[in-house]
Design a protein that fits this description.
The complex is a heterodimer of chains A (about 210) and B (about 120). Chain A has about 210 residues and is of the alpha+beta class. Helix content of chain A is about 45%, strand content about 25%. In chain A, helix 1 runs antiparallel to helix 5 and helix 1 packs across helix 7. Chain B is an alpha/beta fold and about 120 residues long. Chain B has one domain: 3-Layer(aba) Sandwich (Rossmann fold). The chains are: A alpha+beta (about 210), B alpha/beta (about 120). Chains A and B meet through helix 1, helix 3 and helix 5 of A and helix 1 and helix 4 of B.
Chain lengths: ~210, ~120
């Protein structure tokens, strides 16, 4: 079983906290309102349980829209941004302003959500890469609709043990809740652990 | 001031639309051209003479860095700036090596104003 020491766990949360701070700042610039983000929460579980955990945070198994990107390099991860499906048009409207007619806005909803996901996820992942002093190459964003467990299990076996790192966020003025999740499989976790230890060594002046 | 031509290269239609909207709101008489891929951008600059190229990085096909590199060789005098969600130091360093600018997304009016300011001089 994979373990992180207390110090490694602390460093992991701190690094993702910094990344999430950048993502919140980007999201706030997109929607022109304050965005509040939670401290990252880390759990080891299989994909099916991860999906249920996120779904359980909602009152019902509501349908959500998700934008995912796959990253490779210093470590491998899938990053997913998720919003309730019925809020997605509102978010796109906040991004593009009132100038675009509703029909045109509806036509470009998926594409706009992909771009929003691209900006927010890259803002977070790019910050992680900078902290690790390594590069992470991202895929093009992919758009999904479904329940959170459908979205989480779309790209891997339900039985796979993964690290789920998730962050809740709220667009305060519009009361829109969403979350960002990072999924790492076991082999990727070893690479991430190595990067965390290099970071700790640098922080302690040992590298 | 002579009207300028700006080429926006981005696979996201909504990003092109927003950049266009901000440029036109600042200079209604400027011409805004668009390309959805690096390949298309390289084709477009054969027939238009942009005063500035705004280039996304993560696009299908050759991607923005490779397109900027080729465009720099083709049009050494034309200013090119990356306009990207990729905020990694490695990307900024690549931009510096290529002699091109860097601006992070999201696209805002203030960022567009900053990018086009040198053309207003």
């Amino acid at each position: 079983m994979f373990n992180l020491s207390e110090l490694e766990n602390d460093a992991l949360v701190e690094i993702f906290n910094i990344g999430v701070g950048q993502a919140a700042s980007s999201m706030s610039a997109i929607v022109n309102e304050p965005v509040r983000m939670s401290v990252p929460s880390i759990s080891f579980m299989n994909r099916a349980e991860a999906g249920r955990l996120l779904a359980g945070r909602e009152a019902t198994q509501e349908r959500i829209c998700g934008v995912s990107q796959h990253y490779e390099g210093a470590f491998r991860t899938e990053a997913i941004l998720m919003f309730p499906e019925d809020k997605s048009l509102e978010i796109v409207r906040l991004m593009v302003g009132e100038a675009v007619p509703l029909k045109e806005l509806t036509e470009m909803e998926q594409e706009a959500m992909c771009e929003i996901g691209n900006i927010i996820l890259n803002s977070c992942v790019g910050t992680l890469a900078n902290i690790f002093q390594r590069e992470l190459q991202g895929s093009l964003p992919r758009y999904h609709i479904g329940t959170s467990d459908e979205i989480l299990t779309a790209s891997g076996s339900q039985a796979d043990t993964v690290l789920l790192l998730h962050i809740d966020f709220v667009l305060e003025k519009h009361q829109i809740h969403g979350y960002v999740a990072f999924i790492l499989d076991m082999s990727a976790l070893h690479d991430l652990k190595e990067q965390i230890n290099l970071y700790i060594a640098r922080a302690m002046g040992q590298a | 001031m002579t009207p300028k031509t700006i080429l926006i290269v981005d696979d996201s239609r909504v990003s092109r639309m927003m950049a266009r909207q901000y440029i036109v709101s600042l200079h209604a008489d400027w011409q805004v051209e668009e390309a959805g891929t690096g390949e298309e951008a390289l084709e477009r600059v054969r027939s238009i003479a942009p005063d500035l190229v705004l280039m996304d990085v993560n696009m299908p096909g050759m991607g923005g860095i490779a397109a900027a590199e080729q465009m720099r060789a083709q049009l050494p005098a034309v200013p090119i700036s990356l306009l990207t969600a990729n905020v990694q130091t490695a990307t900024r360093e690549r931009a510096t090596q290529l002699g091109i600018g860097f601006m992070e997304k999201p696209i805002t009016e203030a960022r567009i104003a900053q990018l086009i300011a040198p053309l207003e001089a």
